[in-house]
Design brief:
The complex is a heterodimer of chains A (415) and B (537).
Chain A: H1 26-35, H2 40-59, H3 64-75, H4 86-118, H5 126-142, H6 149-178, H7 182-201, E1 229-231, E2 239-240, H8 242-259, H9 261-271, H10 273-278, H11 283-310, H12 315-320, H13 323-333, H14 338-354, H15 367-386, H16 388-403
Antiparallel strand pairs in A: 1-2
Helix pairs in contact in A: 1-16, 2-3, 2-15, 2-16, 3-14, 4-8, 4-11, 4-13, 4-14, 5-6, 5-7, 5-11, 5-13, 6-7, 6-11, 8-9, 8-11, 8-14, 9-11, 13-14, 13-15
Chain B: H1 2-11, H2 22-25, E1 37-46, E2 49-59, E3 64-69, H3 75-82, E4 90-95, E5 98-100, H4 105-110, E6 113-116, H5 128-133, E7 139-140, E8 143-144, H6 146-160, H7 175-188, E9 193-197, H8 205-220, E10 224-229, H9 232-238, E11 241-246, E12 249-255, H10 261-269, E13 287-297, E14 303-313, E15 316-321, H11 328-336, E16 343-348, E17 351-352, H12 358-363, E18 366-369, H13 373-377, H14 384-388, H15 404-417, H16 434-447, E19 452-456, H17 464-479, E20 483-488, H18 491-497, E21 500-505, E22 508-513, H19 519-526
Parallel strand pairs in B: 3-10, 3-11, 6-9, 9-10, 15-20, 15-21, 18-19, 19-20
Antiparallel strand pairs in B: 1-2, 1-4, 4-5, 7-8, 11-12, 13-14, 13-16, 16-17, 21-22
Helix pairs in contact in B: 16-17
The chains are: A mainly alpha (415), B alpha/beta (537).
Chain lengths: 415, 537
């Protein structure tokens, strides 16, 4: 330490606000990383959820490890291990196909929620947008019987996506013009879509089956409008190409959000609507476009399910489907990024599949309880993700302990 | 360590730098003579960065002691240490002669230390009395004793001469009054040491004057006050003594009697600072911004701008001076395309832009240094490069896709040209200091090569070094032929920069003055009571 006066022109303000991202210690860098969507927090979150879920299993008098092993085998992910062979391998393949069939719409509805989050909107309407997409897909798919297959599929998919987009854009438009909160309006639109579906496919409804007059279900879509199956037996619900559509959508999501002018506008509006407006961005129009994009993803999800493996929609399907809400958990866990959403969708898809009644060995864990286990883990994930500040904090404290043997008390950011 | 500081302090050019040193000796009788608050060798690092590096500070009883320093000099960190929000890595805190550990704000309150933050911590929908007593509410039968609370606040308000209406709802009262509520709350907790973090940053000139009166009364009744600021004049005006911090270290403590702005600025920045703006007489060219008979309403639908006309020519700086709330913000918004005027016209370089949206106005050649860089001027979570692109991301895009390479190159160029420090193009704007954030806004707006530049409070919250930079740059842009409309509440700035001064009162231009006009002349017009001078063209 010198006694001479400091040099006249130093680095002006080396920025003494303890803002994140300034320092170069591992802890601060990691915090920044986590803050912008790193992988540590989601991983810890998931781990924690599984640990608590395991405790629940333990309390019910079963062995958590063998339960998780059985669930894992039920997901078909053991297919990825080269040592799985013979009949096990065939079963695993079928299970994995089912997991990926479930993953497909989860990716899409996850993106539908994530895109809105990035623009500062909370899209709870994934469910309604999905339903609208499914309705349109089943209507188009079951009509126009003479159409060439590829064209028929494209038409059904495009119209379903646009229908979802238009449905969601209503919420965006209301937000833009009247300031109505999109949380409220999308919830209301969910109910509206649900009851429209019940009306359309219900007994005597305009889209009710011509063949089964006493069942509240739609017509079957024509065979040529089925999405091609590329893995497994088409007769036994093999894996349809929808998974590639979902992955492509994730790529589009990422490019649009991070590289396009529309994505730039969406993020600017999400971070600071005042600054966006000042910069010349139309905030209201951005809300409409963003919600439209969300609905596009969710509507696509509905189309994939209908054209890929359901082939018909019953009023019951419309009423019990929770996929849009799962999308919220997927987006949260995936930290609103494309890759994160895909991985979170795979996790949730695998959980749903692995704990389904037909897959779990009843001698290890009663399958009728396993579904609840899935729900518990989902709930925990959402809970912990919402409290991810806590997890990030734990990580930071741990790292600081390691980096600094004599830690000061945790600091509260000044100003 | 202590030796070091002794050297540094006595090495400071100020005559009275030993002031702080006298304290330890006078400490023995722990009565009136001992300092109210004493900090010795406070060190606090954030990562590799030492925000406070062995800071010494002594607050005598019943004095107003200013803590002066540039943005990021460590003033707020030091006071957060005092208030128990941060734990120092080294050093000791003495209150009334006793060494204490302040672990939390609650402990600080118990020790008689009160803090008024720059951003008030009030609950807008509650009344003044409810806010003051919050945390130590008088109860009656488990319920809040409303009457008792109001009485308590009224007594306090009478005793210290801080006039407020205890039953008023906080969101309905002015910012100046809200600040009084904060002060009252601290006093209600028995604060003997009151720390005010940049208290005048949010106040109008009138409110500032009132605050100074309040602080003097509090001092005379025995409260010891720490007054954090980076405004030289204000510090000389209010404080009895000044301690200057520079880059986390104490550079000296001086009596304000005998100090002047230049000497304080030198201490603060570490070099000679040009407090006057050097500029040639303007050479006005053709009119670039013409506003005629403009009427604009504010958010509540009230008439804020009522028939205002002004013209700014290329190569001149026209300043709009006035008491805050006389239509300046609405005028700026209307010109910038952020608020549609109810009538009147706005023309930029001859092109009518009345009621056009912000994008049209911007592409017509209007730059706008926003009044509030954090709320409006920047997207704090965007990187510097993304922020610099906010004006023209569309022009540089191709097929609807941004071109990161171009954005990066442009950002590098602008960051260097405008001397924005503290980050590279990928750094989030949030982590820059206030001065550098402002430079970032200025870089973007001037970098867009506008014909008309609206500069709204361009130096608000900046330290002398940064103010010097901004002022020089504005003059340079004027000399380059741009038309600059300066809107500022700082008369000093208005007089230093403007070629013509338009005084607004209640939404109209009430007079035009040359920059040589005295502050008194301008001030008189600002209150609407001046002699009717020439109406602006």
């Amino acid at each position: 330490m010198s006694v001479t006066a400091p040099p006249p022109e130093g680095p002006e303000d080396a920025g003494l606000d303890p803002a994140p991202g300034r320092g170069s210690t591992v802890a601060t860098r990691l915090t920044t990383h986590v803050g912008v969507g790193g992988v540590v927090t989601p991983l810890l979150t998931t781990l924690l959820a599984f640990v608590v879920g395991g405790l629940v299993v333990l309390v019910t008098g079963h062995d958590p490890l063998s339960t998780y092993k059985a669930i894992f085998d039920g997901t078909g992910l053991n297919w990825l291990f080269p040592w799985t062979s013979g009949a096990d391998r065939d079963t695993a393949a079928i299970n994995l196909q089912q997991t990926l069939i479930l993953t497909t719409p989860l990716i899409l509805v996850g993106l539908a929620v994530a895109y809105a989050f990035r623009a500062g909107l909370f899209n709870i309407g994934g469910q309604g947008q999905y339903t609208v997409g499914a309705i349109i897909a089943v209507w188009v798919g079951s009509s126009f019987a003479g159409m060439p297959g590829a064209l028929h599929i494209v038409l059904a998919v495009v119209l379903a996506a646009l229908g979802g987009a238009a449905w969601a854009a209503i919420a965006g438009g209301l937000r833009a013009t009247t300031g109505a909160n999109e949380v409220i309006t999308t919830i209301m639109l969910n109910y509206t879509a649900l009851w429209i579906g019940v009306f359309l496919f219900g007994l005597g409804g305009p889209l009710q089956s011509d063949v089964q007059r006493e069942v509240p279900v739609s017509n079957d879509i024509v065979q040529s409008a089925h999405l091609p199956v590329f893995w497994g037996d088409p007769e036994l619900q093999g894996l349809h190409i929808g998974i590639f559509v979902a992955l492509a959508a994730a790529v589009v999501f990422s490019v649009v959000l991070n590289r396009s002018t529309k994505g730039y506008e969406a993020r600017a509006v999400g971070f600071n609507p005042d600054a966006a407006r000042y910069g010349g961005i139309s905030v209201g129009w951005t809300y409409v476009l963003v919600m439209g994009a969300c609905g596009l993803f969710a509507g696509l999800a509905g189309a994939m399910d209908v054209l890929g493996w359901q082939f018909r929609v019953a009023t019951n399907d419309v009423q019990v489907s929770q996929i849009g809400f799962l999308g919220i958990a997927v987006a949260l866990l995936g930290r609103n990024t494309a890759i994160g959403t895909c991985l979170a969708a795979l996790l949730f898809g695998a959980l749903l599949q692995g704990t389904s009644v037909r897959n779990l060995d009843p001698s290890v864990f009663p399958p009728e309880l396993a579904g609840n286990l899935t729900t518990i883990i989902q709930g925990l994930v959402v809970l912990i993700v919402s409290a991810d500040v806590l997890v990030a904090w734990l990580v930071r404290v741990r790292l600081r302990r390691r980096a600094d043997p004599d830690p000061p008390a945790t600091s509260v950011a000044a100003t | 360590m202590a030796d070091d500081h002794q050297h540094r302090e006595s090495g400071a050019p100020a005559p009275d730098s030993q002031g702080g040193r006298a304290a330890p000796g006078a400490q023995a009788p722990a009565a009136a003579g001992s300092p109210a608050l004493e900090l010795r060798g406070i060190t606090k690092a954030f990562g590799a960065l030492k925000a406070n590096d062995g800071v010494d500070f002594t607050l005598r009883r019943g004095e107003i002691h200013a803590l002066l320093g540039e943005n990021g000099a460590g003033k707020s960190t030091l006071m957060n240490v005092v208030y128990g929000m941060l734990t120092p890595d080294a050093g000791e805190i003495r209150v009334g002669g006793e060494v204490v550990r302040v672990g939390s704000p609650r402990r600080a309150m118990d020790l008689g230390i009160g803090m008024v933050f720059q951003h008030f911590m009030l609950i807008p929908v509650m009344t003044v009395a409810e806010n003051v007593v919050l945390g130590s509410e008088p109860r009656r039968g488990g319920l809040l004793d409303q009457r008792g609370a109001e009485q308590r606040v009224q007594e306090l308000s009478d005793r210290f001469g801080l006039a407020v209406d205890p039953s008023a709802v906080v969101e309905d009262i002015t910012v100046g009054q809200q600040q009084r509520v904060e002060i009252l709350r601290a006093l209600d907790r028995g604060a003997e040491v009151l720390v005010l973090d940049e208290p005048t940053a949010v106040l109008t000139a009138q409110e500032t004057a009132e605050l100074v009166g309040v602080l003097r009364r509090l001092r005379d009744q025995g409260t010891s006050i720490v007054f954090i600021s980076h405004k030289l004049r204000e510090v000389l005006d209010v404080a009895d003594r000044v301690t200057v911090l520079r880059r986390g270290r104490t550079v000296g403590t001086v009596e304000t009697a005998g100090a002047d702005e230049a000497s304080l600025a030198r201490l603060m920045v570490g070099r000679e600072v040009l407090l006057r703006v050097d500029k040639q007489p303007s050479e006005p060219r053709e009119p670039l911004l013409e506003v005629e008979d403009l009427h604009v309403t504010d958010d509540r639908g009230l008439h804020a701008v009522r028939g205002l006309s002004l013209t700014v020519r290329g190569g001149e700086i026209v300043a709009v001076a006035g008491v805050d709330g006389n239509g300046q913000s609405e005028l700026i918004d209307a010109v910038a395309g952020l608020r549609a005027p109810t009538s009147g016209t706005v023309r930029v370089a001859g092109r009518e832009l009345t009621g056009a949206d912000a994008r049209t106005v911007r592409s017509a050649g209007v730059g706008h240094i926003a009044e509030d860089r954090q709320r409006r001027g920047l997207v704090l979570d965007f990187s510097l490069a993304e922020n610099l692109a906010l004006r023209d991301y569309r022009e540089s895009a191709r097929f609807g896709l941004l071109r990161p390479g171009r954005m990066l190159a442009r950002a590098k160029r602008l960051l260097q040209e405008f001397d924005v420090r503290g980050g590279d193009p990928g750094t989030p704007a949030r982590s820059l200091s206030g001065g550098n954030q402002q430079k970032l806004v200025i870089a973007r707006e001037i970098g867009g090569n506008p014909e008309v530049l609206i500069a709204a409070q361009p130096t608000r919250g900046l330290d002398v070094g940064a103010i010097e930079f901004v002022h020089r740059r504005l003059v340079a842009e004027r000399d380059a032929g741009r038309a600059i409309l300066l809107v500022s509440l700082e008369l000093e700035e208005v007089r230093a920069l403007a070629d013509r001064i338009l005084v607004v009162f209640e939404g109209r231009v009430v007079g035009e003055l040359p920059p040589s006009a005295s502050e008194e002349e301008i001030g008189l017009l600002m209150t609407g009571s001046g002699p009717g001078t020439v109406q602006a063209a």
